[in-house]
Amino acid sequence: MSDKLHVKIWRGKAQGAFVEYEVPRQDSQTVLDVVTHVQRHLEPSLSYRFACRVGMCGSCAMTVNGQARWTCRTHVAKVVDGRGRLEIAPLSHLPVIKDLATDMSGFFDKWSSAKGQFKGTATRHDEFARVQPDSPERQAANAGIECIGCAVCHASCDVAAWRPDYLGPAALNRAWTLVNDVRDVMQTERLRAVAGDAGCHSCHTQGSCSERCPKGLMPTLAIAGLKRKVARAAVKGEL
Amino acid sequence: MNSAVKPDITSAIAQARRWYWQRISAMVLALCVLVHLGVMVFAVRGGLSAAEILGRTQGNWAFGAFYAVFVLACAAHVPVGLANIAREWWGMGEGAALWLSRAVALWLLLAGLRAVWGVVA
């Protein structure tokens, strides 16, 4: 292990350039530690985003050596090459605000467009809904519910690059958890929202989202579920 | 921002239907390709000549029906994928991609059925 890292970091907006910094190598160092070192000691004007540092908040995702990753839980040892080189860029498929910070508003607007909000009918005066934990619907919802909204899947999706209006794996995964929520009453509306080429039918099942999801979720599976559900509803004329 | 991602439900249903047809035709194609490869391997054992092929296929309406289904499945399957490629890789608009795919589908259908007719009739 060399005692120095040669770190190239993107500076600028859509137009910009990589700037190289030398960062001391440490044991158990994460990529976020590296970026923080640069900002605190070498380049005070460097912009980046983080909050929890423990893989819960989903705000620190960046492109590390060409791949979207959550930087707070990516150890340098896992991604650095033999010569101690790291290249850190903002997430792909999102507008860059400055340096490593991207504008996530379009990304979250898509969650909203995919009807990612829960809508129930029960009030505080009603009994709790009873949902069997081992029912297929609950199992399917559980499988996707731990999303932290880091946009690593979105940045890894080719279709998101080719079709700017594509809702993307994160929003569709969220929709699938609600499609499987038996308390939700917005089902037809949601299927309409996720149908078609801006929605689930554009997915080519390449699986990059599932491959790269730091939480090990499977948006590909969720999207396949939506395709089946929407197609069935379309054939029956229920959309 | 939201207006760009608001779905047009009529075309969304059409897109969902196209996806469904692509999927069904893919299942038919998978079967057809297997049978086609099997028959080819079997048929070329004793060498292959035009006369030999036509001798087997002419008047064989079961053969004709099988390949007609094969052509139909191709004509249903190819345009959906082609329209996607045209939109995503060639940057065509939805309308243009759709018309291109329909034209190719028609050509596949006519050329394919003509070929089937040519060896069976």
Question: How is this structure best described in words?
Answer:
The complex is a heterodimer of chains A (239) and B (121). Chain A is 36% helix and 15% strand. Chain A has 239 residues and is an alpha+beta fold. Chain A has two domains: 99 residues, Ubiquitin-like (UB roll), CATH 3.10.20; 131 residues, Alpha-helical ferredoxin (Fumarate Reductase Iron-sulfur Protein, Chain B, domain 2). In chain A, the strands form two sheets. Chain A has a five-stranded mixed beta sheet with strand order 2-1-5-3-4. In chain A, helix 3 runs parallel beside helix 7 and helix 4 packs antiparallel against helix 7. Chain A starts with a strand and ends with a helix. Chain B is mainly α. Chain B has one domain: Up-down Bundle (3 helical TM bundles of succinate and fumarate reductases). Chain B is elongated, with a radius of gyration of 19 Å. Chains A and B meet through helix 3, helix 8 and helix 10 of A and helix 1 and helix 3 of B.
Question: Which secondary structure elements does this structure contain, and how are they paired or packed?
Answer:
The complex is a heterodimer of chains A (239) and B (121).
Chain A: E1 4-12, E2 16-24, H1 31-42, E3 61-64, E4 67-70, H2 76-79, E5 85-89, E6 96-98, E7 101-102, H3 105-113, H4 136-144, H5 152-156, H6 158-162, H7 168-179, H8 187-194, H9 208-212, H10 219-235
Parallel strand pairs in A: 1-5
Antiparallel strand pairs in A: 1-2, 3-4, 3-5, 6-7
Helix pairs in contact in A: 3-7, 4-7, 7-8, 7-10
Chain B: H1 9-43, H2 50-57, H3 61-88, H4 94-120
Helix pairs in contact in B: 1-3, 3-4
